[in-house]
Structure formats: structure tokens, C-alpha cells
Automatic annotation (TrEMBL), chain A:
<comment type="similarity">
    <text>Belongs to the ribosome association toxin RatA family.</text>
</comment>
<dbReference type="Pfam" id="PF03364">
    <property type="entry name" value="Polyketide_cyc"/>
</dbReference>
<protein>
    <submittedName>
        <fullName>Cyclase</fullName>
    </submittedName>
</protein>
<dbReference type="InterPro" id="IPR005031">
    <property type="entry name" value="COQ10_START"/>
</dbReference>
<feature type="region of interest" description="Disordered">
    <location>
        <begin position="1"/>
        <end position="23"/>
    </location>
</feature>
<dbReference type="InterPro" id="IPR047137">
    <property type="entry name" value="ORF3"/>
</dbReference>
<dbReference type="InterPro" id="IPR023393">
    <property type="entry name" value="START-like_dom_sf"/>
</dbReference>
<feature type="domain" description="Coenzyme Q-binding protein COQ10 START">
    <location>
        <begin position="41"/>
        <end position="163"/>
    </location>
</feature>
From TrEMBL, chain B:
<dbReference type="GO" id="GO:0016491">
    <property type="term" value="F:oxidoreductase activity"/>
</dbReference>
<dbReference type="InterPro" id="IPR002328">
    <property type="entry name" value="ADH_Zn_CS"/>
</dbReference>
<feature type="domain" description="Alcohol dehydrogenase-like N-terminal">
    <location>
        <begin position="25"/>
        <end position="153"/>
    </location>
</feature>
<dbReference type="InterPro" id="IPR011032">
    <property type="entry name" value="GroES-like_sf"/>
</dbReference>
<dbReference type="InterPro" id="IPR013149">
    <property type="entry name" value="ADH-like_C"/>
</dbReference>
<comment type="similarity">
    <text>Belongs to the zinc-containing alcohol dehydrogenase family.</text>
</comment>
<feature type="domain" description="Alcohol dehydrogenase-like C-terminal">
    <location>
        <begin position="197"/>
        <end position="265"/>
    </location>
</feature>
<dbReference type="Pfam" id="PF08240">
    <property type="entry name" value="ADH_N"/>
</dbReference>
<keyword id="KW-0479">Metal-binding</keyword>
Length: 191, 399
């Protein structure tokens, strides 16, 4: 891994080898497709961490997540939208946690789309906090795979970027921006 | 409600659509009393701006009465407000620096992807101006939903008519920002391309900022006449050679600062412009950039280029060499309207800036399609069309 003259995050590397070693660096590996997304939010690290750590609140900005149940501090149960008005569900576990800094998770072994990753919060001085999501998942193959990919509606990397933007909007402005004109349009947009 | 909707190139209609509703805490609903058609709307009308959808409600210059507020709005029912065309949250990093037109949060998350693809970073949100800038319904309608209503709209003091203050929504701050971006020094000669509303407000602003001389360029006699009214010297590019005239009029130096207030639909039979037009018609390029080319070439060494004019895409034959070799500076952008509104409202109250001179036509919202056609076809006579929902007479020209 020759990265002596390159400070770019491994998630942006052109080299599969570099990306693979970044996957290995995650606490528990669930899949081989890696991506990273970063957003800067004009709020304190503590405030953002606190909001995110309460997983039950994630559906306020994660568009395709219907509900997250939190049976214990480490465990969570995810209910996510699927085609035809259906939902799919899986369990996840927190694998690492540093107060105000980092949360890492991994799905349980039998999840339909094995996934794991971490969300990090770094001070950005007068600009607030840099929030980085690094996510690994196992893209499903075959017919079932296509169905599940549809369930994610969009490529997970795009979905994650949009979710982070909504998180930023919610934290900075207290609401998630919409250009809908009527309640009916807004419902349709969210469906 | 009734609203002016876009259906395609040169096809706008007044349709009946559902009324807007409060959807977010900081929203307000405004009942429109006056709304103008802008030069920027003509770019939509002519089909130059991508990501428009049939049925989109146009209009980004509007004002009216507050009729409903969300719990987070600071407005009060019955207040009269002018609404900035830029949708800004007031709390992101850029808003903190008063770069309101670069707000991170006005544009809905899903819409930001297009801007990322086209420009590297997402655009902010604008009213009635394609889905690239959010897909928000505009104000050429009876009602409009205004997000972040605690930050944007400015309350109109008693005693001022709609016509006095309407242009605070866009073109007055745009003309002012254009002059500010020209970094005018006392004694400067400033050249302004385009005597539309933006150019004419840039002329007034440049004088207020200390320019000794403003030279305004256009080909419509009536528009040139208005520029002269504010003390500008003029060049009619159909009758004179612009570059040669500017050089002779500035002692062979060139203007200290140049302002392009024309934009991507430059007129005129110039070789580069004709090539641009052919390319645009074949979809090989999008923008006709004749005026900015000419402005850069005419500008003096070490001078300043200000570009309020709107461009959308990738361009050809940009005089990059002239730009570099002469050591020019370029400033541009959508206007940070919220930043300028309070001071400019004061300037209107104190009579330092004339706004109503611009209005050539007032008509009802129902006549909006006619207003677009007139503004498009007869730019000489039609300098600004103001639509008034509830206005009963049709197409009353100003005396
Ligand atoms: N930056 C912003 O936030 C902002 C806001 C509003 C408008 N705008 C843009 O500013 C520009 C002007 O707006 P407007 O409402 O005044 O438009 P307008 O169409 O009314 O005026 C443009 C003028 O330019 C003249 N013109 C055309 N070709 C020319 C040439 N080759 N040389 C000199 N003059 C020429 C036209 O005759 C016309 O009078 C447009 O591009 C508009 O989209 C930008
Ligand atoms: Zn405008
Ligand atoms: Zn903002």
C-alpha cells in the first residue's frame, strides 16, 4: 500500500487494494463495497453526536428508514422501506463508541443486506463539525439482489449523501427543506 | 388558486392549481399583491435553463400580504412583505457570512445532486427557477409558500406603494451588488453592458458608489434613454463599434471596471455571437457569451469585471489569455438579496434610488402569458411588466 504522498481518504482511492485495507480496518467487516461521505455542520460536536446516538430519531432525516427500535444501548432493530409498500427488517449492534467522537455498528449475521460502518464527528473550528460516514455493505446479487437494491431505492452512496444533507438541514435550521407546495405533494415525495 | 405555469419553450399558461400550505415550522403563506417578470424569466421562456418540468409555477420577484404563518415564523398576519428570490436559511456557514445566495440548506437534499454533477457543488434554492435550484413554486400566482420566513422577507413601512419596493426582491439588489462587485473607486469610469432592469440599477448604483462616469451599452433606444436619464453616457452597439468607442471615450485606457448585465442570450450580429447561436441551436453549447467577451477585452489593465448576468453552462472562446495577461479580477454570482434589502429599503425611503421609473406595464395575473410575449418581443418599449392578481383592467401601460 504505497500511500506516502497521498493524504486523500482511502474511500476515494482508485486502488482496490487500498480500499480493501480500509474495509479491514473497520471493527467488524460486513461486505466489501466501501464508500465515505462527509458533510460539515455548523453545530457543536456534542450536539450532533447526541442527536445521532439516539437511533430512534434517525428516521427524521433518513428517508427510507421507517423506524428504528432500540431494545438496549447496544442493540437496534431497523425497519426499512421495500418495494410494493413492504418493509424489510434487520438487527444491528454497536461495535465501538467514543462519546462525542465516533459510533460504529455492524448488522447481525443474517441481515438481507449485510452492512456496517462508522460515523465520526470532528471539530471544525468556526465551521462547526465535520461528520463523516464510512459504510461497507455487501451488494446483493441475482434477482433477489435487484429487488433489494430497489428497496434501497437508490445507490446507497447517493442515499447516504442525501441523508447527511438532511441531517445538516435539520441540525442547522430545525427543519428538512422541501419544495413541495401542498401537504399531498410532500407525502408523495416522501413515499 | 390561479398561477402562471411553464409548459415548454414560449408556452406559459395561467392554470388553476392547489393552494400552497404551511409544511415546515418556519414557513409563511403570502397572498401576492405584485409580482414582476424578470430578464431571468425570459431565459426559462426561451428554454435555455435545464431541469424545468411542465406545470412549474414561475416568478421570483414578488411581494404581498402575510396570510398564514408556521410556529417558527416571526411574521404576523396582515404584514406587507417583499420576499427575496434567494431562499436562505440564515444559520449555515454561508448565511453567517451574508453569502445568502450560497446557502447550504435552501435547496432540498435530493435536488442538490444535479448541482453537484453540473457545477461541483449544489446550488442554493431560488423561487420559480427550475429544479436545479430546488423546484420551488414561484410567486407569479395568487399565493406562495415562503420557507425560512423569519429570515428572508422584509416588512414594508407604511406609506410606500408596492411599485416603490417590489424590486427589492431581486433586480435592485442585483444592480447594487453588480456595482459593489466592480470595486468602484472615486473617479472611475464604469462600462455597463445591457440597459435592462439590472443594468439600469447598476448605473444608478455605480454613481452612488462614486463613479465619475458610467457608459451604458445597448441597442434599444428607449432603454438607452433611461440610462441617460440617470446620467450615463451611452453607446448604441447597432450604430457604433463598442470596443473602439470605449477606447476613444476613455483616452485609450479602457474602462476601469466593466459590468456584464446582458447574460446568456446576448443579441447582435457579431461573428462570435452567431457561432454561439448556431451551437446553441444544435445543442453543442448552451450560452451566448458575446457581452462578457467584449467586456473583458475592453476592460483596462488591472481592471475589474463584474458579472451579474446569468450563465448556465460551458462556454467556448472565453478570452482567458486577455483575462490573465491584463491581470483582471472577476466577481459574479446570484445576488445575496437578504444582505442588501435593509439598506436599499432605506435608500428608497430617502429618495436616493428611483425604482418606479422602470415599470412600463401593469397587468393582471390572468394576462401574464401576454406579458411574457410582450417583454420577449418588444424589449424596447417593455422595460418591466408588473403583474397584479386582482387587477381588473388589462395591459395598462404607464404614462
Ligand atoms: N445575478 C443575479 O442574481 C441576477 C438577478 C437578476 C437577473 N440576472 C441576470 O441579469 C441579466 C440582465 O437581466 P435584465 O432583467 O436586466 O434582462 P433584460 O433581458 O431585460 O436586459 C438585457 C439587456 O441587454 C441588452 N443586450 C443584449 N445583447 C447585448 C449586447 N451584445 N451588448 C449590450 N447589450 C446587450 C438587451 O438589449 C437588453 O436591454 C440577465 O442575464 C438576468 O438573468 C441576474
Ligand atoms: Zn429576477
Ligand atoms: Zn443558509
Amino acid at each position: 500500500m504505497a500511500r506516502r504522498n497521498d493524504d486523500a481518504p482511502p474511500t476515494t482511492s482508485k486502488s482496490q487494494e487500498t480500499r480493501d485495507s480500509a474495509v479491514q480496518a473497520l471493527p467488524e467487516t460486513r461486505g466489501d463495497t466501501l464508500f465515505g461521505r462527509t458533510v460539515t455542520i455548523n453545530r457543536s460536536r456534542a450536539e450532533l453526536y447526541e442527536y445521532w446516538r439516539d437511533f430512534a430519531r434517525l428516521p427524521t432525516f433518513m428517508e427510507n428508514v421507517v423506524r428504528v427500535d432500540v431494545p438496549s444501548r447496544e442493540l437496534s432493530h431497523w425497519v426499512v422501506k421495500a418495494p410494493g409498500g413492504k418493509t424489510v427488517e434487520w438487527d444491528a449492534r454497536i461495535t465501538e463508541e467514543k462519546d462525542g467522537e465516533l459510533i460504529a455498528w455492524a448488522s447481525s449475521g443474517d441481515a438481507d443486506v449485510p452492512n456496517g460502518g462508522r460515523i465520526e464527528f470532528q471539530d471544525a473550528g468556526t465551521r462547526g463539525t465535520i461528520v463523516t460516514a464510512t459504510i461497507v455493505y455487501d451488494p446483493p446479487a441475482g434477482v433477489l439482489g435487484k429487488l433489494i437494491a430497489k428497496m434501497f431505492q437508490r445507490e446507497p452512496a447517493i442515499q447516504a449523501r442525501r441523508d447527511l444533507r438532511r441531517f445538516k438541514q435539520l441540525m442547522e435550521t430545525g427543519e428538512v427543506a422541501t419544495s413541495s407546495r401542498t401537504r399531498a405533494q410532500l407525502e408523495e415525495e416522501k413515499a | 388558486m390561479r398561477a402562471l405555469t411553464w409548459h415548454g419553450k414560449h408556452d406559459v399558461r395561467v392554470d388553476t392549481v392547489d393552494d400552497p400550505e404551511i409544511l415546515n415550522p418556519r414557513d409563511a403563506i403570502i397572498k401576492i399583491t405584485s409580482t414582476a417578470i424578470c430578464g431571468s424569466d425570459l431565459h426559462l421562456y426561451d428554454g435555455f435553463i435545464p431541469t424545468m418540468k411542465a406545470g412549474d409555477i414561475l416568478g421570483h420577484e414578488f411581494m404581498g400580504e402575510v396570510v398564514e404563518t408556521g410556529p417558527g415564523s416571526t411574521l404576523v398576519k396582515g404584514q406587507r412583505v417583499v420576499v427575496p428570490f434567494t431562499i436562505a436559511c440564515g444559520s449555515c456557514y454561508h448565511c453567517g457570512k451574508h453569502q445568502y445566495s450560497a446557502c447550504d440548506n435552501g435547496n432540498p437534499a435530493d435536488n442538490q445532486d444535479i448541482g453537484m454533477e453540473l457545477y461541483g457543488q449544489p446550488m442554493s434554492g431560488l423561487f420559480g427557477y427550475s429544479h436545479l435550484t430546488g423546484g420551488y413554486a414561484g410567486g407569479q400566482a395568487e399565493y406562495v409558500r415562503v420557507p425560512f420566513s423569519d429570515v428572508g422577507p422584509i416588512v414594508v413601512p407604511e406609506g410606500l406603494d408596492d411599485d416603490d419596493v417590489l424590486f427589492l426582491s431581486d433586480i435592485l439588489p442585483t444592480g447594487w451588488q453588480a456595482a459593489e462587485n466592480a470595486d468602484i473607486e472615486p473617479g472611475d469610469t464604469v462600462a455597463v453592458w445591457g440597459c435592462g432592469p439590472v443594468g439600469l440599477f447598476a448605473v444608478q448604483s455605480a454613481f452612488l458608489m462614486g463613479a465619475a462616469r458610467v457608459i451604458a451599452i445597448d441597442h434599444f433606444p428607449r432603454r438607452l434613454e433611461l440610462a441617460r436619464k440617470f446620467g450615463a453616457q451611452t453607446i448604441n452597439f447597432e450604430e457604433s463599434k463598442t470596443y473602439e468607442a470605449l477606447m476613444e471615450m476613455t483616452g485609450g485606457i479602457g474602462p476601469d471596471a466593466v459590468i456584464d448585465a446582458v447574460g446568456l442570450e446576448a443579441h447582435g450580429f457579431f461573428v462570435d455571437n452567431v457561432i454561439d447561436q448556431v451551437k446553441a441551436s444544435l445543442f453543442l453549447g448552451t450560452d451566448r457569451i458575446h457581452s462578457i467577451r467584449q467586456a473583458i477585452v475592453a476592460c483596462r489593465k488591472g481592471g475589474r469585471v463584474s458579472m451579474p448576468a446569468v450563465y448556465g453552462g460551458i462556454v467556448d472562446k472565453f478570452p482567458l489569455g486577455a483575462f490573465m495577461e491584463k491581470g483582471l479580477t472577476l466577481k459574479t454570482g446570484q445576488t445575496s438579496v437578504q444582505h442588501y434589502m435593509p439598506a436599499l429599503l432605506n435608500a428608497i425611503v430617502e429618495g436616493k434610488i428611483d425604482t418606479t421609473f422602470l415599470i412600463s406595464h401593469r397587468m393582471s395575473l390572468e394576462d401574464a402569458p401576454k406579458g411574457y410575449k410582450m417583454f420577449h418581443d418588444n424589449q424596447n418599449e417593455v422595460t418591466k411588466v408588473v403583474l397584479k392578481p386582482g387587477f381588473t383592467e388589462t395591459a395598462v401601460a404607464a404614462e
